[in-house]
Write a structure and sequence with these properties.
Layout: H1 22-41, H2 59-63, H3 67-76, H4 80-91, H5 101-114, H6 121-129, H7 136-155, H8 162-175, H9 185-201, H10 206-223, H11 232-242, H12 247-263, H13 273-287
Helix pairs in contact: 1-3, 3-4, 4-5, 5-9, 6-7, 7-9, 8-9, 8-10, 9-10, 10-11, 10-12, 11-12, 12-13
């Protein structure tokens, strides 16, 4: 999972803790709130204009922000076309490609999941793949996305089906054949788009919906915006509580447990009583005869 903004006060991340001014703390809290907005607003297709949102952020101040923060605010205020323009500019900037991986994923999420546009990303990805500073494995992964997106679009047309999302998510998992591979990212984005629309349509039964939440948790673990603001744990827990007797609920628990414990990695703090109690309660749901 990737991080967009790092919090110096996050002991769990093992990051140094310099003193912050009140302004610094306020700015960080605003960014965290913005992250929550982005996670929610980018879930479902939304191509409508939002004129009211244009007044939420001072235009002059917005233009002065770094690309990534600017795009996040544009996504939070549902200015998705503007966000795409910002991300496109960032992807052609001199920033090292390693620093652009999060924005590259955001670009796919907004293009495909929010705007339902599979064609706009293609020339942008082609330019990115031609960057002289990109490493070979990433270039091959991006070229794979370019080839895969038209085929994925054909597979996802029409009514969203759980079986399509399941199949594409499984393909995504099989594509991660090497450490640090990003080859499955486009597949995860497309699978998440189908799953969000499937749940929104409300046609699934309890078990189908539970599996959709589990699969969404898997996709979020790969394409989620950052470590501290992620819906993956909620999605895994929802799947377990909805259908604890299903095989995927055990997989969901294993992943939820990992997500929870990794939050404390590098910290001198033990898992909180609330988190420990929640894990025990969920485990009991499928361990009880």
């Amino acid at each position: 999972m990737r991080a967009t903004w790092l919090a110096p006060t996050q002991k769990a991340a093992g990051i140094a803790q310099p003193s912050w001014s009140g302004r610094d703390r306020a700015a960080f809290l605003v960014r965290k709130v913005t992250e929550n907005c982005v996670v929610c607003h980018s879930r479902l297709p939304d191509a409508a204009e939002r004129p009211l949102a244009s007044g939420f952020v001072d235009a002059k101040g917005l233009e002065a922000l770094p690309f990534e923060q600017k795009a996040a605010l544009q996504m939070a205020t549902r200015r998705f076309d503007d966000a795409l323009l910002t991300l496109e500019a960032q992807l052609t900037s001199p920033e090292h490609p390693a620093m652009l991986l999060g924005s590259l994923t955001d670009y796919l999420v907004i293009s495909i999941r929010t705007q339902q546009d599979y064609e706009r990303p293609l020339p942008v990805l082609e330019r990115f793949a031609r960057r002289p500073d990109i490493w070979t494995a990433l270039r091959r992964d991006v070229e794979f996305w370019i080839d895969a997106l038209p085929r994925l679009q054909k597979r996802t047309s029409g009514r969203p089906r759980l079986e399509d999302a399941r199949e594409i998510a499984e393909e995504a998992r099989s594509l991660a054949v090497a450490p640090g591979s990003h080859r499955g990212v486009a597949h995860y984005v497309v699978a998440s788009s189908i799953l969000e629309r499937f749940l929104e349509a409300g046609r699934g039964d309890r078990v189908e919906n539970a599996e959709a939440y589990y699969l969404l948790g898997l996709t979020e673990a790969w394409i989620g915006r950052n470590y501290w603001v992620t819906s993956a744990p909620f999605l895994f827990e929802t799947a377990i509580r909805m259908a604890p007797g299903e095989p995927f609920s055990r997989d969901a628990y294993a992943l939820l447990e990992r997500e929870t414990l990794q939050f404390y990695e590098g910290s001198d703090e033990e898992i909180s009583p609330d988190d420990a109690s929640n894990l025990a309660e969920l485990r009991a749901l499928f361990d009880t005869p």
